[in-house]
């Protein structure tokens, strides 16, 4: 149930799983015996995805996905399977030929609902479509997210030779994202409940909020539905411990992404490299890129960033009417374009100087700026090398009229935007990998003629959803009842382990079990007896030595399990080089005679005690005034209750998550007397590393008295839950964060910070 409370100042509204709000309605509801917890509604943003190039007629190489083997050899197309898509509308341009051309019984999209409020669309000048019309009415190139997802799952167009993973599956779609590309998580939960009631066997969620905890309301709702037999394939996000909710939930398939090995792309030709084509990606605001000469700007063997610090020497180079090549970083893309415009150039190219960057630079820019585009690292570095060697030769750039197929080679690379697990509870996420980079699929017909190449983990999860539909169809035909857990296990055990160019596998915390494979796991159950022979394996890289010690030889009858002990030895040197390293690998089961891999199981572990992992970043927490939170305050701090600009503000940056944060008010003797207003937070995710990657807690002078004045009170809720205002005098703030797997009743399991003296005065 969702309750909206209006006209309440944001600083006066605080919700948590243990109360902590001063609003009387919420206080009253929290005492009801049927209420388990009360949570604030979180905003979810549409996952970031990147524009590519249109008019490609083959979404996946069969050698990678095996989907077309399944269609042709096993005659599985997803027929009879209902797949739910909860997205930006799924967006559905259901009039798109590849998506069935209509909505309702007899069409591919059989059912749809629009959960976006009419007022929300009207505010943005969009004409509302009605409750039973999930059509995506939004404008701009950022729209069409759901249509792309729907095409990957079940699109089909003979004229384009386009075949989705489960082309004969039936779709049910829910539009939950408005045209502002945001949604409240309670709306997503409502859509999930509706999908369950509609009978969806697979649900695709290409959305999420960055929170690595399984206790979030959205994750809890999804976990309950997965136990009821519904499988949810959900996309992940970037960074350690940043698996998005509800992908953290048990029973949910969270998906990592690889780039498609070949794809269509817009390309440049350079006069210095005749006969070669180099892919580029226009920025979000660039419709076309001009031909022209490159400006020679090399300083100390490198390109400029085109930021403020570069402008003094950039004005010394002749570049009017030319195209400027710059490095990404040090300032925002729009700032670079603003500076380049002052120099008189007619276009800007970005490239990433990081040698590990494989993808084309993707730039989000404002409309009305200079034309700009991103290049691959290999292209940019090659141009720089040539400029340094041959400054007497003018490099002419020409934009090719036709797109070209870019062959990325045989190596399947993890996408730069893919995630790194685990969850805060050390559950392995992502669980499996699929193609999410440079994926060709449907978009609304009004955009790029209805077809486009996009990239994002949002493009990887629908491939898994489609594969699950094929598996369900197979087991329905064989009249074999299976659970969602069984299907997920089959996907994982028969995944293809992905390796780097060096031949070393990607870490399981990056690829999960490996790349999804489309046919092996759907073959009839093998009834052959296999024999495990004792073998010693010594294989590793970096500072890790792995030694496997299996049990004695054992014959395994069909459908009978055997326990095998595996010992992993890691030398001590790695512990010195890397604090709290996460090791991992794969246990592969092979046929004794053919040496063919039958299945594999990923594993990982952490060296060290997770309680020793610091929660706060260096230099944090600190206290500042609400009017200037970047400047650390001096103590004693003078706090005038009637002046909001003097409100003491505690600023933190967390490098890992914490299950609980408390901000206590101490009297002048250091004794706890209460919890400050908005001073309790549960299941907090880590902060990012952006310039504003911090959290601030403002003390307005209110606090909730504790029942007990003991120094390490953990149960502080009293019968008198009303907050009171601090009187004149001296106080301190004590911020406490619970360590990983910590016991809240154990004082040693908290990381603490105490402020200096705060003097409260009343005018």
UniProtKB/TrEMBL annotation:
Active site feature: 87 (charge relay system), 145 (charge relay system), 458 (charge relay system)
Matches recorded under SUPFAM superfamilies: PA domain, Subtilisin-like
Classification via PROSITE patterns: SUBTILASE, SUBTILASE_SER
Signal peptide positions (record): none
Keywords: Cell wall, Hydrolase, Protease, Secreted, Serine protease
Alphabetized CDD domains for the sequence: PA
GO process terms (BP): proteolysis
UniProt-listed Gene3D superfamilies: 3.50.30.30, Peptidase S8/S53 domain (3.40.50.200)
GO MF terms, alphabetically ordered: serine-type endopeptidase activity
GO cellular component, one term: extracellular space
Keyword check for Secreted: yes
Domain named Peptidase S8/S53: residues: 78-480
Family: Belongs to the peptidase S8 family.
Record protein name field: Peptidase S8/S53 domain-containing protein
Organism listed in the record: Rhizopus azygosporus
Organism ancestry: Eukaryota, Fungi, Fungi incertae sedis, Mucoromycota, Mucoromycotina
């Amino acid at each position: 149930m969702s309750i909206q409370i209006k006209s309440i100042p944001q600083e006066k509204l605080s919700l948590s799983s243990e109360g902590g709000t001063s609003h009387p309605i919420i206080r009253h509801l929290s005492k009801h015996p049927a209420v388990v917890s009360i949570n604030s509604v979180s905003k979810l943003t549409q996952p970031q995805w990147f524009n590519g190039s249109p008019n490609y007629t083959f979404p996946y190489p069969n050698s990678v996905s095996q989907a077309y083997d399944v269609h042709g050899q096993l005659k599985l197309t997803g027929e009879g399977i209902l797949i739910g898509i909860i997205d930006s509308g799924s967006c559905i341009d259901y009039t798109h030929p590849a998506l069935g051309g209509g909505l309702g019984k007899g069409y591919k999209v059989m059912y749809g609902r629009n959960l976006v409020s009419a007022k929300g669309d009207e505010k943005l000048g969009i004409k509302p479509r009605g409750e039973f019309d999930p059509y995506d009415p939004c404008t701009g190139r950022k729209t069409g997210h759901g249509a792309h997802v729907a095409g990957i799952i079940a699109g089909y167009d003979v004229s384009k030779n386009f075949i989705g993973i489960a082309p004969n599956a039936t779709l049910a779609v829910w539009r939950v994202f408005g045209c502002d590309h945001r949604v409240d998580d309670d709306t997503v939960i409502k859509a999930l409940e509706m999908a369950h009631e509609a009978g969806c066997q697979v649900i695709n969620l290409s959305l999420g909020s960055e929170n690595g905890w399984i206790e979030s309301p959205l994750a809890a709702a999804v976990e309950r539905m997965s136990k009821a037999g519904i499988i949810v394939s959900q996309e992940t996000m970037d960074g350690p411990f940043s698996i998005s909710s509800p992908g953290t939930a048990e029973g949910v398939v969270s998906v990592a992404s690889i780039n498609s090995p070949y794809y269509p792309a817009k390309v440049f030709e350079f006069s210095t490299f005749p006969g070669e084509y180099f892919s580029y990606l226009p920025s979000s605001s660039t419709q076309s890129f001009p031909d022209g000469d490159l400006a020679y700007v090399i300083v100390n063997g490198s390109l400029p960033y085109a930021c403020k610090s570069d402008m003094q020497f950039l004005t010394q180079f002749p570049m009017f009417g030319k195209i400027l090549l710059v490095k990404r970083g040090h300032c925002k893309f729009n700032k670079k374009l603003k500076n380049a415009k002052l120099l008189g150039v007619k276009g800007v190219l970005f490239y990433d100087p990081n040698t590990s960057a494989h993808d084309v630079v993707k730039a989000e820019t404002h409309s009305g700026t200079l034309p700009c585009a991103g290049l691959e690292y290999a292209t940019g570095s090659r141009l720089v090398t040539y400029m340094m060697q041959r400054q007497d030769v003018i490099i002419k750039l020409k934009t090719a009229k036709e797109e070209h197929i870019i062959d990325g080679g045989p190596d399947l690379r993890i996408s730069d935007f893919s995630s790194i697990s685990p969850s805060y509870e050390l559950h392995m996420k992502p669980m499996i990998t699929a193609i999410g980079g440079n994926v060709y699929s449907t978009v609304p017909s009004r955009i790029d003629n209805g077809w486009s190449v996009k990239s994002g983990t949002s493009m990887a999860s629908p491939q898994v959803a489609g594969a699950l539909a094929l598996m369900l169809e197979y087991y329905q035909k064989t009249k074999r009842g299976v659970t969602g857990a069984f299907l997920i296990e089959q996907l994982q055990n028969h995944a293809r382990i992905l390796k780097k160019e060096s031949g070393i596998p990607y870490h399981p915390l990056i690829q999960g079990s490996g790349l999804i494979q489309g046919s092996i796991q759907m073959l009839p159950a093998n009834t052959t007896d296999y024999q495990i022979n004792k073998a010693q394996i010594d294989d590793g890289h970096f500072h890790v030595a792995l030694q496997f010690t299996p049990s004695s030889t054992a014959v395994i009858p069909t459908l009978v399990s055997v326990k095998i002990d595996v010992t992993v030895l890691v030398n001590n040197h790695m512990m010195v080089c890397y604090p709290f390293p996460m090791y991992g690998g794969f246990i592969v089961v092979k046929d004794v005679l053919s040496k063919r891999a039958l299945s594999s199981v990923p594993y990982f572990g952490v060296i060290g005690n997770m309680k020793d992992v610091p929660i706060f970043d260096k230099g944090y927490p600190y206290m500042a005034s609400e009017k200037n939170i970047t400047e650390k305050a001096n103590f004693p701090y003078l706090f005038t209750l009637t002046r909001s600009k003097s409100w003491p503000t505690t600023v933190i940056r967390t490098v890992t998550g914490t299950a609980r944060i408390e901000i206590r008010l101490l009297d002048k003797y250091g004794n706890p007397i209460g919890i400050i207003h908005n001073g309790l937070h549960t299941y907090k995710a880590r902060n990012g590393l952006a310039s504003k990657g911090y959290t601030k807690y403002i003390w307005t002078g209110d606090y909730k008295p504790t029942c007990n004045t003991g120094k390490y009170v953990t149960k502080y809720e009293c019968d008198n839950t009303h907050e009171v205002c601090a009187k004149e005098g001296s106080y301190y703030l004590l911020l406490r964060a619970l360590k990983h797997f910590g016991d809240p009743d154990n004082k040693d399991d908290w990381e603490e910070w105490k402020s200096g003296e705060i003097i409260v005065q009343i005018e």
